[in-house]
Amino acid sequence: MKKALIISSLALALPLVSFAAISNISDAGSFIINTINNILVPVLFAIAFIVFLWGAFQAFILGANSDEVKTKGKNLMLWGLIGFVVMLSVWGLVNILTGTLSFGNSSGPTGGVPQAGVQVGG
Question: How do residues 35-91 score in pLDDT, each as one tens digit?
């Protein structure tokens, strides 16, 4: 079972590597960052959401008669919310840092020179 899981995950990940077209270190770094941003972060948010939902299910449906199951479900809900808050905080801090220090934006402002719409001086 473990061997089949490893082989299938490698088979599914092979197109990611072949379409990456990594030719230098900068491309490798941006590929890793894009993979983290586009695959890993949504998966972590989904796991935190599932933990929260499972805790709600345990607290309000399975634990209707049992206080022990109800407290276990409430603890899972709490840990799911803590996961959300930590991930959102880190995500916000990283965006503030990259926006402030202009990481990954070497092109400058786009759109050219702003126009006033009226001709001045001439």
Answer: 877 888 888 889 989 999 999 998 888 877 888 888 888 899 999 899 889 888 888
CA 59 to chain centre: 28
- What are the domain boundaries of the chain? 48-100
Burial of 111 (0-12, 13-18, 19+ CB in 10 A): exposed
CB-neighbour burial class of residue 3 (10 A; exposed 0-12, middle 13-18, buried 19+): exposed
Q: Is 70 exposed, middle or buried (0-12, 13-18, 19+ CB in 10 A)?
A: middle
What is the residue whose two structure tokens read 């503030």?
A: 96
Q: Record the pTM.
A: 0.57
